[in-house]
Design brief:
This protein is mainly alpha-helical. The protein is built from 16 helices and 4 strands.
Length: 349
């Protein structure tokens, strides 16, 4: 912490020095980091919630503090092409994994989120709420499950999520993982969980076999209100964020695939991906991947979502429900995603 303070503040004009070094936006990012550190370092270390999967308790070294200082400087990935953006992001992910000492195994949970195509020797790791339904529709056409003439938007969501082969059930899964081209997409952590809340708890997902109101909403209601009278139908966003941000490994409901940390699903610290795209540039990045894979003759363009849940991280309807404590707890829980995938902190604007 002293490293950040020494480099960010001068004796003569602290405010001016901050603005010159980092800029106003970056200054606020750094203040968020310091607030998080003060909370976390009371016990002199952070214990990440995935300890049983290999993440160690982390003491912040000078190198780690320097990495976080650079992150706080607000440098953004602004290179022009999808390939260049991906290469920069892949390097960023490697640096974050090394600095935060993230070491996760390649396990069945991860491979249960991977679709594969033996003919083209490609693997797609899907993360719920990151355009995965659109990509699965594309995959059905690539693998011949539907005819080339099929309108992708007409493929039922239940079919999309149940008919595609998963790497977890494949033969020679390790060989495929080592030799096939691999790609994944990520999204701002807050936007992703906001989309999940709007889709699964604020609304009622009639197409899902899993009753989120009953299985998740009622548990949140019981936990924080000591009642289940509303049957989980009116859970607030602040209650949801509080629930998923609790420290520790978490319950099955807290670790649901729609809001569990993205790096736990696709494990870019343990698997070397050839391309990492972002939801924020989904059309451009996805069309690049289709061209890169040489499948433009089968799919002429990436389809739009048939059920978009627009999630904007600073939407006052949701963002204003969270106090600073809730924002810091959320950031602490999703720290690895924020840092590895180079996303701004909540409240940094």
């Amino acid at each position: 912490m002293l490293l950040i303070l020494r480099e960010g503040i001068s004796r003569r004009s602290p405010a001016r020095r901050w603005r010159m070094m980092l800029g106003w936006r970056s200054m606020k990012q750094t203040l968020v980091i310091l607030a998080v550190f003060i909370t976390m370092l009371l016990a002199s270390y952070i214990v990440f919630p995935y300890e049983s999967y290999g993440l160690r308790a982390v003491r912040f070294s000078r190198e780690q503090l320097e990495y976080l200082r650079l992150y706080a400087s607000g440098a953004e990935i602004t290179v022009p092409t999808p390939k260049e953006r991906s290469e920069v992001l892949k390097t960023h992910v490697k640096d974050a994994c090394r600095t935060l000492n993230i070491s996760l195994p390649v396990n069945s949970f991860m491979m249960a989120h991977m679709h594969y195509d033996d003919d083209r020797k490609i693997i797609y790791c899907f993360i719920p709420k990151v355009a995965c339904t659109s990509w699965k529709r594309v995959w059905m056409k690539l693998t011949g499950i539907v005819t080339p003439e099929t309108n992708l938007s007409t493929i039922a969501r239940y079919t999309v999520h149940t008919k595609l082969p998963l790497l977890a059930s494949a033969k020679d899964k390790s060989l495929k993982l080592d030799t096939y081209k691999k790609f994944m997409f990520v999204r701002h952590p807050f936007d992703r969980v906001l989309s999940a809340y709007k889709d699964k708890l604020e609304n009622f997902d009639k197409e899902s076999a899993y009753n989120f109101h009953k299985q998740v909403g009622k548990k949140i209601e019981k936990k924080y209100r000591n009642t289940t009278m509303s049957q989980g139908h009116n859970i607030t966003f602040s209650e949801f964020i509080r629930f998923i941000s609790e420290p520790g490994w978490g319950s099955t409901e807290q670790r649901n695939e729609h809001w569990i940390s993205m790096h736990e699903i696709c494990n870019p610290c343990g698997v070397e991906y050839d391309f990492i795209g972002k939801y924020e540039t989904i059309k451009e990045d996805s069309n690049y991947v289709l061209d890169w894979l040489g499948v433009k003759d089968v799919v002429d363009g990436f389809p739009s979502s048939d059920r978009p849940f627009h999630a904007r991280r600073y939407d006052p309807k949701y963002f204003n429900q969270l106090d600073q404590k809730a924002k810091l707890e959320f950031f602490s829980k999703y720290l690895a995603d924020f840092l590895a995938f180079n996303y701004d902190f909540l409240g940094a604007k």
